[in-house]
């Protein structure tokens, strides 16, 4: 058993791990899809995932006796475990995955064309890759979007987030799932962060980003303290609940560091995105800002979490692909 001193010396980066996959689909018929496809992919996928995992057929997961060991509950209804020391009062905690839809606004696809998106799995979520593969294949038979367009899963590649190297995981041609991986761990992130400019950094937000600060969403700008505060909470939760890591209270000091950083220049616009929630039976907003901001100041202590944030996303609705940014 580790002592309190040993725990204090640990960092979230000691246990953090993630994996990225490129999912290639082939359309089997002409398709009409929304411009922002994150909600469509995640929504259809979640429905199929529940169907293939649910053994009890309960109306809700809350009353199910198997919820503590159910893959669907862990992945899609992620809740604090019994006896959790953090976020115990929250009904849900961050999920161990992120869907990254195509960045273009293309809406029409012909039969036989390629549709590519990315999937990020975090910590224990990586172990559930076979479930994701099976569910994606099933979703192809059920169909996506309102017209239930059919597709087939043609291939999956594991991508190294930092180097871009890739390895074939699955191919329709032989219908085999290979025991390959390209897992990035916390030490990889901290090493790569040392190569970034510690005084000047530009972030480009690629998908609608909604960052809440002092009770309100930032729809005009992304001030450093707001970004860092959101990142530290999200990364801490992902580390603690999915990577077997600690809750790193030292990250709070990064918020003080962020107060000394300022935005040298920024250019943002709001992107309006609506989705229909089958669960809530109503439309929901995924609207947020896209654009660029350049930060200047003592960025060195912030670089590891800014680099990691590229892959886990930031702000509300990250699982749909919102809050994706890249460091330039």
SSE layout and pairing:
Layout: H1 4-9, E1 17-27, E2 31-32, H2 38-53, H3 71-76, E3 97-100, E4 108-109, E5 114-122, H4 129-142, E6 151-159, E7 166-171, E8 176-177, E9 184-185, H5 186-193, E10 200-209, E11 212-213, E12 216-217, H6 224-242, H7 252-258, E13 262-271, E14 274-277, E15 282-285, E16 288-296, H8 303-312, E17 325-327
Antiparallel strand pairs: 1-5, 1-6, 1-9, 2-4, 3-5, 6-7, 7-8, 10-16, 10-17, 11-12, 13-16, 14-15
Helix pairs in contact: 2-4, 5-8, 6-7, 6-8
Tags for this model:
about 325 residues, alpha+beta, Alpha-Beta Plaits, 2 domains, seven-stranded antiparallel sheet, four-stranded antiparallel sheet, 8 helices, 17 strands, about 25% helix, globular, disordered N terminus
Account of the 3D structure:
α2 (38-53) crosses α4 (129-142). The chain has helices spanning 4-9, 38-53, 71-76, 129-142, 186-193, 224-242, 252-258, 303-312, and strands spanning 17-27, 31-32, 97-100, 108-109, 114-122, 151-159, 166-171, 176-177, 184-185, 200-209, 212-213, 216-217, 262-271, 274-277, 282-285, 288-296, 325-327. The longest helix has 19 residues, at 224-242. It contains 8 helices and 17 strands. The chain has 328 residues and is α+β, with helices and mostly antiparallel strands. Strands 1, 3, 5, 6, 7, 8 and 9 form a 7-stranded antiparallel sheet that branches. Strands 13-16-10-17 form a 4-stranded antiparallel sheet, covered by helices on one side. 26% of the residues lie in helices and 28% in strands. β7 (166-171) and β8 (176-177) form a beta hairpin. It is globular and about 55 Å long. The chain folds into 2 domains: 4-15 and 186-327, 2-Layer Sandwich (Alpha-Beta Plaits); 17-184, Alpha-Beta Plaits (2-Layer Sandwich).
């Amino acid at each position: 058993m580790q002592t309190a001193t040993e725990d204090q010396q640990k960092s979230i980066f000691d246990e953090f791990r993630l994996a990225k996959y490129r999912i290639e689909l082939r359309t089997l018929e002409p398709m009409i899809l929304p411009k922002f496809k994150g909600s469509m992919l995640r929504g259809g996928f979640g429905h199929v995932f529940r169907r293939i995992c649910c053994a009890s057929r309960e109306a809700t997961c809350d009353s199910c006796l198997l919820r503590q060991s159910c893959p669907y509950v862990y992945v899609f209804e992620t809740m604090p475990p019994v006896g959790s020391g953090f976020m115990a009062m929250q009904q849900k905690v961050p999920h161990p995955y992120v869907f990254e839809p195509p960045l273009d606004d293309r809406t029409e696809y012909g039969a036989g064309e390629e549709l590519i998106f990315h999937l990020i799995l975090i910590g224990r979520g990586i172990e559930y890759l076979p479930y994701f593969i099976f569910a994606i294949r099933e979703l192809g038979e059920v169909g996506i979007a309102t017209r239930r367009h059919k597709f087939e899963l043609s291939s999956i590649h594991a991508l190294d987030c930092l180097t871009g190297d890739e390895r074939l995981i699955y191919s329709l041609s032989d219908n085999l799932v290979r025991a390959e991986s390209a897992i990035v761990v916390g030490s990889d992130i901290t090493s790569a962060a040392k190569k970034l400019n510690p005084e000047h950094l530009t972030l480009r937000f690629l998908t609608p980003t909604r960052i809440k600060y002092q009770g309100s969403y930032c729809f005009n700008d992304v001030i450093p303290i707001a970004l860092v505060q959101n990142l530290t909470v999200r990364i801490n939760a992902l580390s603690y609940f999915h990577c077997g890591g600690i809750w790193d209270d030292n990250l709070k000091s990064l918020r003080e560091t962020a107060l000394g950083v300022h935005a040298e220049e920024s250019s943002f616009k709001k992107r309006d995105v609506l989705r229909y929630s089958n669960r809530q039976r109503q439309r929901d907003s995924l609207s947020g800002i896209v654009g660029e901001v350049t930060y200047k100041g003592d960025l060195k202590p912030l670089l590891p979490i800014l680099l990691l944030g590229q892959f886990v996303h930031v702000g509300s609705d990250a699982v749909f692909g919102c809050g994706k940014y890249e460091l330039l």
